[in-house]
Amino acid sequence: MNIRGQIDQVIVSVVVLFAVVFLMVFFQYATALLNIFSSGDGFVVHNSEPRDMAASSAFLDLFLSDRVYTDRTYLGVREAIMAMANEENENTAFAIEQLFRQHYACDAESFFVFGKYEGESSRAENSDVSFDTVRVYAILPSRGFDFSAITKNVGALTAEGILAGEGVSEGVSARGAVFRLESDLFFIARGERLC
Amino acid sequence: MLNRRGHVPTLMLFVVALALCAAAWFSFLTFNGDIREKAASLQSWNERVEAERVYAERVIEGLVAGAARDASEALAASVEDGEGYETRFDRFLQVRVARFSDVKNISGNALGLMRTHSYLLKQDGEVYVFELKNIFLKIEDGRNSVVQRFDMRISFMPSGEIR
């Protein structure tokens, strides 16, 4: 009797084991199915914009920290630009342009824009900065523009807003570009590597 | 009768396993967390960490390329003064690092390592190899912080062209 009882128990144990395994597999499939329904159209989308903007930011900082030889003296690009924004200087402009062309514009997608905003300004609730007038001093590499200042009326001081001006937007996209405001100057740059 | 009583623990095992499965499933179903929101937050954090690293790598690469270019130009323009390429490279690298620090700083020790000459520069045939080890970046956001440690190895021509 004992032996028969033990055999019965072994049989029942095997059946129970299969039942538990079946339940676990069912559970696993059910969970996977729930995940599919909850994931929708895929919420993990790789966004390359921050990476490109970081590269452009490094590109801009390297250019601003570089130096140019103008009027028999070495001058940091940043200081040269600050000086140019107050008083235009053809030699300095030429030196900056040459530096950019030689060592920064190796990639056709690279560009550098700097300018100054003028007129009334207001900061909207959504933190967009609005200005009446922007004076663009340089678009490098120049696409039909030279260093002579271009005064434009723009609604919002953004990379897209400035580059979308007549003629400027041709072949130029602001995607991956970094836009920076410093005092009353602005810089827009996009670049991957130096050459 | 005794034999049937022996089945009770086995049947209990089945019932308990079933209850455990149901409890686990219930906890999954009632998990209170917006996965999308959390994933977006983590993704944003991950992108920021990656962006900081890309920024640091590009800056280091640019400073090295610039210093190499300066050294090459100075070597070509100057009179023979016995100063080797490596010495000139280091001198110009210090200047560039100092100038860059005036514009921006990198979170971490990358600029400090270059400032303290804690790098290796060796010639390998036509190219020079610049090695910077144990760079760390610390990215903080509130109480969260991520520390990245990495090495960089940059091969460049004496003219500054990165290979």
List the helices and strands and how they pair.
The complex is a heterodimer of chains A (195) and B (163).
Chain A: H1 2-39, H2 49-65, E1 67-70, E2 73-76, H3 77-86, H4 90-103, E3 111-123, E4 129-140, E5 150-153, H5 159-163, E6 178-182, E7 185-190
Antiparallel strand pairs in A: 1-2, 3-4, 3-7, 4-5, 6-7
Chain B: H1 2-5, H2 7-29, H3 35-77, H4 85-103, H5 110-115, E1 120-124, E2 127-141, E3 144-156
Antiparallel strand pairs in B: 1-2, 2-3
Helix pairs in contact in B: 3-4
TL;DR of this structure?
The complex is a heterodimer of chains A (195) and B (163). Chain A is of the alpha+beta class and 195 residues long.
Can you walk me through this structure?
Chain A has 2 domains: 1-45; 49-190, no CATH class. Chain A has a 5-stranded antiparallel beta sheet with strand order 5-4-3-7-6. Chain A has 5 helices and 7 strands. The model of chain A is unreliable at 40-44 and 122-127 (pLDDT under 50). With 195 residues, chain A is an alpha+beta fold. Chain A is rod-shaped, with a radius of gyration of 31 Å. Chain A has helices at residues 2-39, 49-65, 77-86, 90-103, 159-163; strands at residues 67-70, 73-76, 111-123, 129-140, 150-153, 178-182, 185-190. With 163 residues, chain B is α+β, with helices and mostly antiparallel strands. Chain B folds into 2 domains: 1-30; 57-163, no CATH class. Chain B has 5 helices and 3 strands; from the N terminus they run H-H-H-H-H-E-E-E. Chain B has helices at 2-5, 7-29, 35-77, 85-103, 110-115, and strands spanning 120-124, 127-141, 144-156. Chain B has a 3-stranded antiparallel beta sheet. The mean pLDDT of chain B is 83. The chains are: A alpha+beta (195), B alpha+beta (163). Chains A and B meet through helix 1 and helix 2 of A and helix 2, helix 3 and helix 4 of B.
